[in-house]
Automatic annotation (TrEMBL):
Residues 14-158 form the N-acetylmuramoyl-L-alanine amidase domain. The keyword Protein biosynthesis does not apply. The lineage of its organism: Bacteria, Pseudomonadati, Pseudomonadota, Gammaproteobacteria, Lysobacterales. Gene3D superfamilies: Peptidoglycan recognition protein-like. GO terms for molecular function: N-acetylmuramoyl-L-alanine amidase activity. Keywords: Cell wall biogenesis/degradation, Hydrolase. Signal peptide: none annotated. CDD domains: PGRP. Pfam families: Amidase_2. GO terms for cellular component: outer membrane. This is N-acetylmuramoyl-L-alanine amidase. Its EC number is 3.5.1.28.
Amino acid sequence: MPAPPIVHSPLPYESRLQARDRAAIDLVVIHCTELPDLATAREFGEQVHYAGSGTGNSGHFYIDRDGSVHQYVDIGRVAHHTRGHNARSIGIELVNTGRWPNWLDAGHQAMDEPYGEAQIDALLGLLESLRGQLPGLAWIAGHEDLDTTEVEARDDPARRVRRKRDPGPLFPWATVVPACGLQRQA
C-alpha cells in the first residue's frame, strides 16, 4: 500500500512537547476522535490542558473520512494520547463520531459509524510508511485495549462506563492486523 500524502499542520505547542529517541517507539495506538469532524478535532487538539508545559491532548496523525492524512505532532515528540504509553507510541486518530456528544452517558455507549475504505487504506499506507521510518515498531493496539478505566456514568451515577472505547467495535481489526505487519497488543 503506498504511503498517503501527509498534510503537515503542527499544533501551536508542538515544540513544547517532550522530544524522544525514535528508536524507543515500538507501538501504534489507534483512536477515533469521537467528534463530528476534523475541524472540531483540530480545535480540541489545540486546547491547552497542561498549564505547566502549555500543551494539550492530541494524536500524531489524523485520518479524515476521505482518507486525507494530517500530521499534528512530529513523531520525534511525545504526544498526549494514551495514559502510560505516550513515550513509546504513535497516536493515530480516525475521524469518527464514536459516542459523541454524550461520551460518558450510560444510555449512549453505542458506536455505530463504520470506518470507510478510504480511511482504512490511508491507515494501512501510513502504517507501512511508519514501519519504514521506525525499525523498532512492532505493536498495534486500540485505545480501549490500553485504557480500561471505568468511570461513573454522567446520566446515571449508579452505573459505570468505559472512559475510552475507541476505536470501537466497528474498527476492522481482522483486516488491519494481517495487512499492517504489526502484532496486536492487548
